[in-house]
Amino acid sequence: MASLPWNNELAAALTERKAAGRYRCPRIRTGQQGVNIVVDGRKVVSFCSNDYLGLAANSEISHAFIAAAEHEGVGSGAAHLLTGHSRFHQELELAIAEFTGQQRALLFSTGYMANLAVIDGLLDRGDTVIQDKLNHASLLDGGRISAAEQQRYLHADMSALERRLVASDSARKLIVSDGVFSMDGDIAPLAEMMNLAKQYQAGVFIDDAHGFGVLGEQGQGTIAHYQLEQKPILMATFGKAFGTAGAFVAADEEVIETLIQQARSYIYTTAQPAAVAAATLTSLKLVQQQSWRREKLASLIKQFRTGAQQLGLDLMPSDTPIQPIVIGDDKQAVALGQTLEQQGLLVGVIRPPTVPAGTARLRITLSASHSEQQVNQLLSALEVAHAH
Q1: Is 71 a catalytic residue?
Q2: Cα–Cα distance for residue pair 25/104, rounded to 1 Å
Q3: Which domain holds residue 375?
Q4: Is 198 a catalytic residue?
């Protein structure tokens, strides 16, 4: 017997998705994450990971992980509020609060869970959450599960945001935005956003998953990029530039304490392994000390953008490691991705519903581990593929 009485309908919907060129399948990587990887048994140069600083397979971080696992075991064995909160978790929360210049930090198992926690944990019926249209799915889901009214504004359009703020009669309003937008690579106009928030007495919550570690002199992210003194509530992940796993929320004492009491995705889940927190403490040290990683990344971004512009490719306005090339048609984007892969170059092919219809793109992500030669190799392959 089929698992569900409507299995046939599921099968038909899957067939339809395949025909539309929007079917997705996981790829199997063998060995370490990095630039030169083996995917589905084939060696490729990868331009589609979030390993922006090349720390995912760093031996110093791995050693910290192994040493802590040998000392603490692998499973944390409980939620943070029971006995799952190890001394490594505690140390990391204190270190992140200091690094971000915030009063407190709170660890989460994933960025998705952290985003749900903030929006659902801080807002209630009668409150309003105002989100950028291109925000990450987890932020939009946070708005959906919260009892607050959810509104959206046109991407990075501060006058559209102001209209939403003027029209809202809620006593509690929370403005929510990505710091660096994951599919476009552009940076939110945070300074203007903070000014509007002050003017209309709203809170601001920033998801800096793709800016943290990459932007700012020491890698503190989008807030440091704008050198803001007044700080929004910050969420960032460790699974991207930091090369480990998990996430945190950094904010004032009252906000963090409220999340500890009320955030369901913090309270009702097992804590991450202590070894992950231990590894992240080492990663934090490297992110701060090894600014050459950010400098090298910046020069590769410049090299790629200059080359792509000379080829007449349709680039988006991004100065971050996320460099999308807009193709438009779904099937054409898939075909281009396959052409590059045949030459041993792996790029992200992003299609709706992840991005709006008609904006399918190749999403190229750069890492400090790439060489100038590899970037040139990608540009040459794009030139040939684009010509065809």
Answers
A1: no
A2: 39
A3: 28-53+291-387
A4: no
